[in-house]
Amino acid sequence: MIPAAVRPLADVRDQVIADWQQEQRAERAAKKAEEIAARLKQGAKAAAQDVATQAGASFAMTSPFTRDAQSVQGLPAEMVAKLFAAKPNDVVTGNTADAQVVTRLKEVIPADPKAADADLAPVRAAVEQGMQNDLVAEFTNALRDKYPVSIHRQRIDQFFASN
């Protein structure tokens, strides 16, 4: 058995330098994202593309998306949720594995359930699953109230331990 020990710097020097550089880049990117977000918040009328270009960042506009989208053109699900909690012209920030993301909500387009392309199947399935779960939980609670159950965890553990 070899006791735990700190590896010599000579063995890990390259990795330490690479990690430090990555950390420094991430910190600079986070500061730049904060600056861009502040500029977008100050000038609600400022063109986001101009702000991004002046800061040396890239600009993209997403197509409209729904609340249940997992990832939208590079926006992680966390950012999608934040955007649905925001109001028009609110600035929302976040990050992906390799980038800082600054977004400004342009507009909220109400969903039209009567539209030909409206896909209500996921909503319907989620509601049905929720109702099923509620019914099973209520039935289980009713049975437990009518027929009390005692679980002897120690006995169960003994039974399975001996076999």
Walk me through the structure.
- By secondary structure, the chain is mainly alpha-helical.
- The protein has 2 domains: 9-104, no CATH class; 121-162.
- Helix content is 53%, strand content 6%.
- A two-stranded antiparallel sheet has the order 1-2.
- A hairpin with a 4-residue loop joins strand 1 (91-95) and strand 2.
- The radius of gyration is 26 Å and the shape is flat.
- The mean pLDDT is 82.
* Spans where pLDDT lies below 50 across 5 or more residues: none
Strand order within the widest beta sheet = 1-2
**Tally of alpha and pi helices:** 5
Total number of strands: 2
- Could you spell the SSE succession in H and E letters? HHHEEHH
Give the terminus-to-terminus CA distance: 34 Å
Q: Biggest sheet, in brief?
A: 2 strands, antiparallel
* C-alpha-based Rg, rounded: 26 Å
The rough form would be described as flat
Q: Considering DSSP H and I runs of 4 or more, what fraction of the residues is helical?
A: 40-55%
Strand content: 5-15%
Structural class given helices, strands, pairing? mainly alpha
List the helices and strands and how they pair.
Elements: H1 9-42, H2 48-55, H3 77-85, E1 91-95, E2 100-104, H4 121-146, H5 153-162
Antiparallel strand pairs: 1-2
